Amino acid sequence: MEEVIQVINVYKSFGSQQVLKGVSLSVKKGELLYIIGKSGEGKSVLLKHMVGLIRPDKGKVLIEGQDLHELKGAEALALRKRVGMVFQYGALFDSMTVYENVAFPLREHTNLSEEEIAEVVKEKLTLVDLEGVEHKLPSELSGGMRKRVALARALALNPAILLYDEPTTGLDPLLTEEIDILIKNTRDKTGVTSVVVSHDVWSVIKYADRVAYLAKGRIEFIGTPKEMLESDNPMLRRFICARLDENLMKSLFNACRTHGTCTHCQQEL
Ligand SMILES: Nc1ncnc2c1ncn2[C@@H]1O[C@H](COP(=O)(O)OP(=O)(O)O)[C@@H](O)[C@H]1O
Ligand SMILES: [Mg+2]
What we know:
Blueprint: E1 3-14, E2 17-28, E3 32-36, H1 43-50, E4 58-63, E5 66-67, H2 73-80, E6 83-86, H3 98-109, H4 114-127, H5 143-155, E7 161-165, H6 173-190, E8 193-197, H7 201-207, E9 210-215, E10 218-223, H8 225-230, H9 234-243, H10 246-253
Parallel strand pairs: 3-8, 3-9, 6-7, 7-8
Antiparallel strand pairs: 1-2, 1-4, 4-5, 9-10
The structure holds adenosine-5'-diphosphate and magnesium ion.
């Protein structure tokens, strides 16, 4: 299968703080890959490398085989447009209507006519199951609807790759589920290669094709959700156990938190 993102031995420091220490990771075309890891481990820094917002100190990042930092002018711009990013808080323009928010990247980066723009906006809003809200302001929408608008806007330029930075952090369980399903449906309908940073282990188990665990500046594990649950990496086991509730753990591992020591992560309980 074609690899559309290749992160090759990437190092990145900020001052004396080494954040990424040799990260290598490939994402396949059309894949839904989750990246998990503790807060502050460098997940957002890794995503920003994939969209070209940060340049590695060492190593490289290839998008569809090309290095963003080696291209110039129109070629660099064209490659940048292949990668869309959905930020944690949606980052919609509050004073613009839903229509204007989704139309914004089209006005910035294309020469489409107003009629063509209207068509694309309608198509993208339909794709995320939002209709009849074009003339509302973001403040008039629910949290879930705002996320849908942000996604429609990210989809406006037909990216090959979509990166989501903690799209469900701070949301209640119902809305988390709604957004997880939206991400998966979007991938299923468009085939867009999707990378999701999340700390929600249950989302990973239900929706990920593969999952990468970032710890200590490296990818400590990569595999299917099933392989993740079976991994004997002690750090990963603790990470999982700390983030699943008791009933889920019992059903998954058959014993967690029922003895003095967790049989999965070996932690004292
Ligand atoms: N632009 C920056 N300048 C300095 N330090 C940064 C910058 N971006 C991230 N960091 C630091 O890098 C570390 C990893 O950050 P981040 O990728 O945001 O973690 P997370 O895994 O929670 O997304 C943190 O200690 C953060 O303070
Ligand atoms: Mg982050």
